[in-house]
Amino acid sequence: MNVEITECGAMKVLRPVGALKGEDARQFHAQAVRLFDDSLGRCVVDASAISYVDSVGLTALLDASDRMAVRGSSLRLCGLSATVREVLELTGIAAHFDFFEDVNSAVRSSL
Question: Residue 7 has what pLDDT?
Fold first, then answer.
């Protein structure tokens, strides 16, 4: 899995490309945590290129969300496919995230 990191205004944008599973999910988590710490929580996860999420990927997202909550923020997810969004809802963890259509909407929500 490749994780692209860009900026949109004052926000860092992580865009994982491919399946968020197994070792790739662990690597994504490590990158996300490091970026959250470096950017003081001003981050968005652009999930538009995530094709699949397994239990390790769900755990990575949930732990990242918990880390953001400690800072008084929430993890902003944008661009999710209907399938990935449904997985989050069916597993009961969707309430841990803020969902947005696209990166710009997610960034504007933090202003």
Answer: 93
